[in-house]
Structures are given as structure tokens and as C-alpha cells.
Amino acid sequence: MFGKSFHKVIIWIIYISLAVFVFPIVLVVSSIITNIDSCRRKKEKSIKNEVAVVTGSASGLGKNIAIELAARGCHVAICDINYDLAVTTAKEIAEKYGVKAKAYKVDVSKYDEIVELNEKLTNDIGFATILVNNAGLLMHSDRLKPTVKEIEAMINVNYTSHFWTNRVFMENMKRARKGYLMAMCSIAGLQAFAQAEPYSSTKFAVRTLMRILRAELKIEGFRCIHLTTVFPYFIRTNARVTQLAEEGGFTKVIPLLESEEVAQRAVSGMLCGEVEVIIPSFTALIYRLLVLLPQRVQDYLTAANVSTSNNI
User: Fold this and answer.
1) Alpha-carbon distance 80 to 243, whole Å?
2) Which residue windows are coiled coil (predicted)?
3) 163 C-beta neighbours (distance < 10 Å), count
4) Which of 124, 206, 270, 312 has a 20 to 30 Å separation from 226 between CA atoms?
């Protein structure tokens, strides 16, 4: 009996020692590495006359990403379920930046439509070696009680579609032995958001998928294909999301981001070869701090955030 108690005391002493001495050191080292990595960003690679596919780019963040690519001389495929708006966006970009820009109506959750998109795009503009997976569903009609169809749609668009687009356009990149793949994720892919299970789950899944793909490309010897995952905070592109952020008190901590600044930082990070882009950058330190905590504590903080926002 005494031996077991003594053993527990020793374990607790070790835990406390780790918390007091090791934890701060790990945090400081992580902060230093993060800042060094940010400061030594490479010069952007040129993508002039390359062809890019941007899903969900008729408006909002996707449109701004397409604009950033076009401003660098890249031809763009404006892919969206809203074809009429995509046509307008493509025309605006082509006229302003002097690049080829064409609209395509695509349901990214359907593999056959992605295959057809690749064939049409190759004939219309050229061989695409840049893919930006931006399309996504943000909200349900009822945030707390989504229907089965709404959950299925969110999983298919936010996560499953990445398999189809990656499978099709990654082949282009491998043949050309060059390329960029960007996945627009979310801060909800770093920190679990309670009462947003379908959305946050899909973002965690995308984050994991990108990590696996990077490892597989290295194993296969395709170091010339660069993968970037972007984790932005709340963006002022959707009225309901803006309302949710304001009512939840999130804007009191960090102001809402503008889609233009997120697009600029994301594209620049991709072309500089960054693996993960967290916007704003200081939230990366918060994320790294949280993952060092025991899971029970992380769960408590996740629930506490919801309780706090519900009382605001």
C-alpha cells in the first residue's frame, strides 16, 4: 500500500516538474522557431503564365485569392456552383489583369465533374498545376440542429471534395513535376469548436489530409510540389458568420479579418513555400500552447468558451 502511494507521489512530482520547468522552455523554443520561420520567408516564386484552379471563387475569399494569383500573371479558372456570378468575376479579372480567366460551373463534391473540369480547362486555357481548395459550407439553417442532408453536404463539400480535386489535379502536377496545392482550412481546424461539430470536424480532417499528402509526396520523390494549409480566423465575408463572431464575443479578442488581407497572405505564403499559414500569426502561439495542455484541460477550455459565448 505504501509502495503504491509512494509511486503516485513520485509521478506527481515528475508532472509538476515538467509543468514548472519543461513547459515554459518548450513554449519559448516554439515561439522562437515560429518567429524565425516567419522572418526567413523565402522570395515568392514566379507563377506567370501558370494555370490555377480556385474552387468557390465567384465571390468572397475565393475571388480575392483568384485576384492575387491573376495579379502575379497566373491564368485562373473561376470554379463555383453559382455560374452567373463566376462569369462576372472571370470577366472582371481578365479585363483588369490581362490574363486568361474562365468561369466553370462545378459541384466539387462530384468526382465526375472534377474530371470534366480538368478536361475542359486543359483545352480552354491550359494544363493546371496550381490548385486552391477554397470551396466550403460555413453554416447550417439551424446551427445547433442541422439536418442529415446539411451535415452530409458539409462533409462532402468541406472534406470529401478535397480527395477528388487532389486526385485529378495532383496527376497534372506529377506529370509536370511542379505545382502548388493550397487548402483553405480554418482556425477551427486547430482548436475544436463546440456546437460546430460538422464544420470543425471537416477542418481537422483537411489539416490531417494535407499532412499525409506532404509525407506521401516526399516518399514518392515529388519535392517539387508544394502543399500549404491556411488557417484564418473569422473573416468578414458572410453576414451570419460575422453575427456569430460578434455575438460570441470573439471579435472582442481578435477583430474580424478582411478577405483581401487573408488572400494576400495565403498566396504569398504558398509561393514562399510555407507549409502552414496561420492568420493572424500570433494565434499560432496560442494554438501551440493549448496542445501542450492535457486533453482534459483542453476539453474544459473548449466547453468554457461555449458557456462564455452563450452568456454574452
Assistant:
1) 25
2) none
3) 12
4) 124
Strand partners, 235: 257
CA quadruple 151, 154, 156, 160: dihedral sign: negative
DSSP β-bridge partners for residue 168? none
Beta strands in 12-168, from DSSP E residues, in sequence order:
51-55, 75-80, 101-105, 130-133
Give the number of other Cβ atoms within 10 Å of residue 41's Cβ: 13
pLDDT tens, residue by residue, 167-183: 999 999 999 999 999 99
What is the H or E stretch that residue 228 is in?
A: strand 225-232
Q: Which helix (H) or strand (E) holds 278?
A: strand 276-279
Residue 280 CB partners (closer than 8 Å, separation 6+) = 233, 254, 257
H-run or E-run covering 84: helix 83-97
3-state secondary structure of 133: strand
> What are the pLDDT digits (tens) for 234-254?
888 766 666 666 666 666 667
Phi-psi region of 249 (alpha: psi -120 to 50; beta: other; left: phi over 0): left
77 contact partners, CB below 8 Å, separation of at least 6: 51, 52, 53, 54, 101, 102, 104, 117, 121, 125, 128
Q: Distances in Å between the alpha carbon of 128 and those of 64, 147, 263, 302?
A: 19, 36, 20, 40
pLDDT digit string, tens, across residues 8-31: 566 566 556 655 666 566 666 665
Q: Count CB atoms within 10 A of the CB of residue 286.
A: 14
Terminal-residue alpha carbon distance, the chain: 50
Catalytic residue set = 199
Query: Which band of pLDDT confidence, cut at 50, 70 and 90, is reported for residue 195?
Result: low
CA geometry: angle at 62 spanning 189 and 175, to 5°? 85
- Residue 1, SS3 per DSSP: coil
What CA dihedral angle connects 188, 189, 194 and 198, to 10 degrees? 100
| Cα separation, 269 vs 261, whole angstroms | 12
Domain boundaries defined on the chain = 45-310
